[in-house]
Amino acid sequence: MRPSLSFDLFPFRPSPRIPACTCQHPSLRTQLRLVAPLLSRYSVIELQASSLIRLFPTTRIASLRLHMIRETYSKAYPSSHANSLWGWTSLQSAAEACLLGLTSKEWEGHEVFYIVADEVCWEGGLEPGERFKAGELERMTQEEGKEVKKIGTVELVERYHPGAKVKVDWWKNNPRRGCFDCTKAERLLGWRHDSS
């Protein structure tokens, strides 16, 4: 199964102070028409935020790019798929990011932050039919003591987004690391996703 969206470069990274798309990701600029329903909303809102900062330079605006908010991983898992890049955000972590966007002091002006879990929300094989049911992996490892290999993000990206440029160094220390670079949120807001 091939996703209806295509991307050129992984991982996604927000770019400082670039209005409109506010992303260093070339496909977000060149393929905006493919993901228009979502990204055009981001672009318009982020362009407005940058405009407000020019009018009121002492104002601070945090644009949070939240991704599939669910209470827990097990509730996010059934909705996770290739078009969403297997990302999700816990309700608690989203709320914390909103508060930090208002109260943190390490930045000024308008900034864009990805607020997404550190690891992909996917269990099982590469094909949709090989996907485990929600909680099946946990049951297999706890009850049956089986060692089950989790598919890495690079494998998922290569299968579902062929031809995309993948910066494999991003996944060197954690093969299940997500497709969204949230280090800016950690650095400037002090935010880190809580997957518990």
Q: Brief description of this entry?
A:
The chain is an alpha/beta fold and 196 residues long. The chain has helices at 26-30, 36-55, 73-76, 91-103, 136-143, 153-160, 183-189; strands at 9-10, 60-66, 69-70, 89-90, 109-115, 165-166. The two termini are 31 Å apart.
Please write out the topology:
Elements: E1 9-10, H1 26-30, H2 36-55, E2 60-66, E3 69-70, H3 73-76, E4 89-90, H4 91-103, E5 109-115, H5 136-143, H6 153-160, E6 165-166, H7 183-189
Describe, in plain words, how this protein is organized in 3D.
By secondary structure, the chain is an alpha/beta fold. The chain has one domain (9-189). 33% of the residues lie in helices and 11% in strands. The protein contains seven helices and six strands; from the N terminus they run βααββαβαβααβα. It has helices at 26-30, 36-55, 73-76, 91-103, 136-143, 153-160, 183-189; strands spanning 9-10, 60-66, 69-70, 89-90, 109-115, 165-166. The strands form three sheets. It has a two-stranded parallel sheet with strand order 1-6. A two-stranded parallel ribbon has the order 2-5. It has a two-stranded parallel ribbon with strand order 3-4. α3 (73-76) links the parallel β3 (69-70) and β4.
